[in-house]
Amino acid sequence: MSLEKYKILENKIKNRTSDNKILETEDFKVAAVSILIEKNNPDFPIYMIKRADEGRHALEWAFPGGKTEKTDKYLSDTASRETNEEIGVELNDFTLWGELDPVTTLGTGWIIQPYVGEINKNSIMKINKNEVEEVAKIPLFKLIENNNNRYVSFTRDGKRIDSEAYAYEDKLIWGASARMIAQLSNILTN
């Protein structure tokens, strides 16, 4: 069953481009991330990172990625370069299939272009401890089961913010990363 879902995602996302091209605005900083699904693993885990203890998104669960650099020709270059920098996997160990729709952060001024792809099961990681505290491989299809759906609320700058979230074991994934996972879930069911 999981292999069937993996193939559906691959077919629907391959060469997919985002319908929402609002990436270049004065109000947002632009970033790109890689949502990598481990192929040849019956659990089809996605690679998530726990950010290092610095900045506004410190210690949050996220996908490998980061802000664009002038040397990046495309946002897919940003996602690939940052993935290599953060978790140390070689560029030829993963392939990006296509794009999800961009997602904004909750009140921190980022717009993020997510890319989805596959990574080799036996890829060697070398974690950049300056940026990443931990890497987790989370079974994608278990994560998106209804019993793992959550909502979180918090206050930022005096405003209440509600966010969909996903829980898996001791990990709570919320905000932009949760909205990316929700897109994957929607692609599977539509």
Topology (SSEs and partners):
Layout (H helix, E strand, L loop, with lengths): L1 H12 L15 E10 L6 E7 L9 E2 L2 E3 L7 H13 L6 E6 L3 E2 L5 E10 L12 E8 H4 L5 E8 L2 E10 L2 E4 H15 L1
Parallel strand pairs: 1-7
Antiparallel strand pairs: 1-4, 2-3, 2-8, 5-7, 6-7, 9-10, 10-11
CATH superfamily: Nucleoside Triphosphate Pyrophosphohydrolase
Nearest-angstrom radius of gyration?
Answer: 16 Å
The CATH class name reads Alpha Beta
Q: Please, what is the average pLDDT?
A: 90
What is the CATH-assigned architecture? Alpha-Beta Complex
Helix content: 10-25%
The coarse silhouette is globular
Number of helices: 4
Structural class: alpha+beta
Q: What characterizes the major β-sheet?
A: 5 strands, mixed
Strand content: 35-45%
The sequence of SSEs as H and E is HEEEEHEEEEHEEEH
Number of domains: 1
Word description of this protein:
Helix content is about 25%, strand content about 35%. The chain is α+β, with helices and mostly antiparallel strands and about 190 residues long. The protein has a single domain (about 1-145), classed as Nucleoside Triphosphate Pyrophosphohydrolase (Alpha-Beta Complex), CATH 3.90.79. The strands form three sheets. Strands 1, 4, 5, 6 and 7 form a five-stranded mixed beta sheet that branches. A hairpin with a 5-residue loop joins strand 6 (about 105) and strand 7 (about 110-120). The radius of gyration is 16 Å and the shape is globular. The two termini are about 15 Å apart. The mean pLDDT is about 90.
